[in-house]
Design a protein that fits this description.
elongated; five-stranded antiparallel beta sheet; 8 helices; about 300 residues; alpha+beta; 3 domains; Alpha-Beta Plaits
């Protein structure tokens, strides 16, 4: 709105040097003229605005078609998350292109170069503002493309162990064996070590057990090896073995190693331990435990008399 500054002809008679008072009154005519000009411009742009809306709606529905086509093109059973992601990205790209075309229809003076330059500056600002979100998003894309693990795999990360329940673009959902859901940002998973427990079809398990120093090691090792071989679901190849690990303070420590299918590892490990304990008891082999002797010198006289 424009204002017209008008000077008052009156001056201060007491002080001639003081400037004359001024008043500011709105110019109603100029304001109305400006409003009329804006209204005329809006009415002239209505056809272009209507065409831009129709074009954007057309691109929006075309994006849905593109999303379905891309998702069907990558329709492998083990690529479900990746096909969904690619379909979404293709859909977003089509919508963005439609938005640019609609903007150029409404603003014909702004060419594609200037429009893209403005979007580039805005993109940089958005990138700094949503740095962590974009990092997790890009990490999710890389995880889905490289597939270091899949839905259903058991992984160990940062003290958490569980089954991968879902891989999203921003985070990975881990379901622990206690049936808790852990939401892990993809940026952390992609930049830190992750143990994929079920990556390979078989795995080795091992544990330590101590026997007394008077034990016949040769026969005991042979007996325990046969015992482990006889446990159900222990693989024959690679064959299990029992070896001397080290000499402890009160026992000779034996290391028992065996291979199983990855899916059978947990319960088979328990069965092997039970069988080893039963075999040692049957052979009369002692499993010693540490013994400590405590000697106290210089007891106070009162405690000595009380003891007497």
């Amino acid at each position: 709105m424009s204002f017209l500054a008008q000077s008052s002809p009156e001056t201060n008679s007491a002080n001639p040097d003081q400037p004359a008072d001024t008043t500011v009154e709105p110019s109603t005519g100029q304001a109305l003229a400006r409003i009329d000009e804006l209204l005329d411009g809006f009415l002239r742009s209505l056809p272009d605005l209507g065409i831009a809306v129709i074009v954007f709606i057309a691109f929006y529905f075309f994006a849905k078609v593109v999303k379905r086509l891309v998702s069907k093109a990558v329709s492998a059973p083990d690529k479900r998350e990746l096909s969904t992601l690619l379909g979404r990205l293709a859909s977003v790209a089509v919508v963005v292109i439609g938005l640019l075309v609609a903007a150029m229809i409404v603003l014909p003076d702004m060419g594609p170069g200037a429009l893209l330059a403005n979007l580039g500056v805005g993109g940089v600002a958005i990138g700094f503002a949503f740095k962590d979100i974009l990092q997790n998003f890009l990490a999710g894309i890389l995880i889905l493309l490289k597939t270091p693990f899949r839905v259903g795999d058991v992984i160990r990360f940062d003290g958490f162990v569980g089954t991968v329940d879902e891989i999203e673009t921003r985070m990975t959902v881990l379901r622990t064996f206690e049936n808790d859901l852990i939401l892990i940002p993809n940026g952390q998973i992609y930049t830190n070590p992750v143990e994929v427990v079920t990556a390979l079809p078989s795995r080795r398990s091992d544990f330590m057990i101590g026997v007394g120093y008077d034990t016949d090691l040769k026969s005991t090792l042979s007996m325990l090896t046969e015992t482990v071989q006889g446990v159900d679901k222990v693989l024959e190849d690679p064959a299990p073995d029992v070896t001397v690990a080290d000499f402890g303070e009160s026992s000779i420590n034996l290391q028992v190693r065996f291979w199983t299918k990855t899916s059978d590892a947990f319960f088979t490990r328990s069965a092997v331990k039970e069988s080893v304990k039963t075999a040692l008891d049957g052979a009369g082999v002692d499993i010693p435990y540490p013994i400590r002797s405590v000697t106290i010198d210089n007891l106070p006289d009162a405690m000595k008399r009380q003891g007497e």
